[in-house]
Design brief:
The complex is a heterodimer of chains A (367) and B (124). In chain A, 49% of the residues lie in helices and 13% in strands. Chain A contains 13 helices and eight strands. In chain A, helix 4 (93-121) packs antiparallel against helix 5 (125-146). The complex binds iron/sulfur cluster (2 copies).
């Protein structure tokens, strides 16, 4: 409380706030208006970068699940690619297809959480329940393919994947995609009726600010920046696939939310193509090995995950374990500079809308 | 408006997305990573499972006295409280002596149940 002006005070948004996740923002508020905001991260630090220095490649793929719980498979892929690049191992074609298939399913799943969390932040419980209900159909696929619903346990691992796709998976995924279509239709209705009036013009991130503050992924694309690692620097089989990168120019919370739905549609397109072209042959699953050394070298790989650009820098000195592993999560820049920039000057009531529209994950920023 | 009413009617007729657990359950598919199952007769005590385990949940222990004759070596004892159900122990076992099953009902109030002894009757 400021003595001179009793209406100026500090307000804590999180970490115990139901709508903030394990993250906190300190807001300086004057009346109903936020004067400035300061992000306060670190509540979910688990020290993965250090832990990885003590584990071998397969054990690290399990850790990579947990970098961001909401899209474990995408992080698996980033880690696997980093090690693959160091070892120079040839990945079987089918494994590449399965990797992209699972990564895209994971992207849809993550966008559904985004959608649900944003709805919840706006006090729109129906949207939250519908999004999380449909997400469960995707978890059913993960359960069938990887053996776990949320944690795939390093399913996408260095050298390929840990299991071949089960025979029933293809029909199951196709059926689920049909269900997702219904879901997208529902999302569209919600957008018009509920999200539009609440998010339109809220938290506008200008194009030059997005560039300056280092926004990536859907956040940058909602501000009119055409950038996507899948196109700019294609990995796996993305260069062979036909898909679009939706962008919007408005840069507000509504544009970001809309982009989430458009990206889900594009991911579904990718999945259908991958299923069509999936090689028929049987795939040898990758099994863990003892004393499996990683050749000397250092790499930096980057991937497009649901939240933006994810990267792993890995240095190996020829031991089983990496010498250093640095993880670059997309949420870090979205949660500190971008969020602080957007919150300054907004209304208190708009804080959750802005916060959740950034598709953030405290787990991948704290690591 | 018509769309909303149509949605309402559809939702009235549609079944809920959830099931009535525990009366009804969603079937767990094959290959799920749940509780472990031993087949000790196959185990050759190579210790690979305990070496590969990322959480050091497996300890190689000797059999209790009454089984010593039949099982002279060391066998894996799993601490399910530490296990993350990654399935590496299953994957690396050369003789399929250790397998993950579909059992997911593992919550317990008794810490003794968390340790999975290779020789069950030894627990008490
Ligand atoms: S499933 Fe994984 S964590 Fe659990 S005992 Fe086996 S190797 Fe260890
Ligand atoms: S269970 Fe399998 S891996 Fe473990 S000691 Fe026995 S044979 Fe070796």
């Amino acid at each position: 409380m400021n003595e001179k002006s009793p209406t100026t005070y500090e307000l804590l948004f999180g970490p115990a706030h139901p709508g903030s996740g394990n993250f906190s923002v300190k807001l300086r508020v004057s009346g109903e208006q936020v004067v400035s905001a300061r992000s306060d991260p670190g509540y979910l630090h688990r020290g993965f970068e250090k832990l990885m220095e003590y584990r071998d490649r397969m054990q690290n793929s399990i850790l990579s699940d947990r970098v961001c719980v909401l899209e474990a498979l995408n992080w698996n892929l980033v880690h696997a690619e980093a090690v693959d690049e160091l070892t120079g191992e040839e990945i079987p074609d089918k494994a590449r297809y399965i990797r992209v298939l699972m990564a895209e399913l994971s992207r849809i799943q993550s966008h559904l959480i985004w959608y649900g969390a944003l709805s919840m932040g706006l006090g729109f419980d129906t949207g939250f329940k519908v999004a999380f209900g449909y997400r469960d159909y995707l978890l059913d696929i993960f359960e069938l393919v990887t053996g776990g619903r949320v944690y795939p346990a390093g399913y996408i691992c260095p050298g390929g994947v840990r299991r071949d796709l089960p025979d029933s998976a293809k029909t199951k995924i196709e059926k689920t995609l049909d269900k997702m279509k219904i879901m997208l239709r529902k999302c569209e209705n919600f957008e018009k009726t509920t999200l539009y009036p609440r998010t339109r013009g809220v938290g506008v991130l200008e194009r030059q600010d997005a560039l300056r503050l280092g926004a990536t992924g859907p956040i940058a694309r909602a501000s009119g920046l055409y950038s996507d690692v899948r196109v700019d620097d294609p990995y796996e089989i993305y260069s062979e696939l036909d898909f679009e990168i939706p962008t919007r120019d408005e840069g507000d919370a509504y544009a970001r939310c809309l982009l989430g739905r458009l990206e889900m549609r594009e991911s579904m397109r990718i999945i259908r193509q991958v299923l069509e072209r999936m090689p028929e042959e049987k795939l040898d699953p990758v099994k863990p090995k003892i004393a499996h050394k990683i050749p000397e070298g250092e790499v930096y790989v980057r991937n497009e995950i649901a939240r933006g650009e994810a990267g792993i820098y890995m240095k190996s000195i020829g031991e089983e374990t990496p010498y250093r592993c640095k993880i670059r999560g997309p949420s870090l820049l979205h949660m500190i500079p971008v969020l602080e920039h957007l919150l300054a000057g907004c209304q208190i009531a708009d804080v959750p809308a802005i916060y959740w529209s950034l598709n953030i994950c405290p787990a991948d920023m704290d690591r | 408006m018509i769309k909303t009413i149509w949605e309402l009617i559809r939702n009235l007729i549609n079944k809920p997305i959830t099931v009535r657990f525990p009366k009804q359950q969603i079937e767990i598919p094959e290959g799920f990573r749940g509780e472990h199952k031993y087949e000790l007769d196959k185990c050759i005590s190579c210790g690979l499972c305990s070496r590969v385990c990322p959480n050091r949940a497996i300890e190689m222990v000797e059999a209790p006295q009454k089984h010593k004759e039949k099982y002279p070596k060391k066998y894996p004892r799993i601490d399910l409280g530490k296990c993350c159900f990654c399935g590496f122990c299953e994957d690396i076992c050369p003789t399929d002596a250790l397998k993950l099953t579909k059992n997911v009902y593992l919550s317990t109030f008794d810490i003794k149940n968390v340790i999975k002894e290779p020789f069950e009757d030894d627990v008490d």
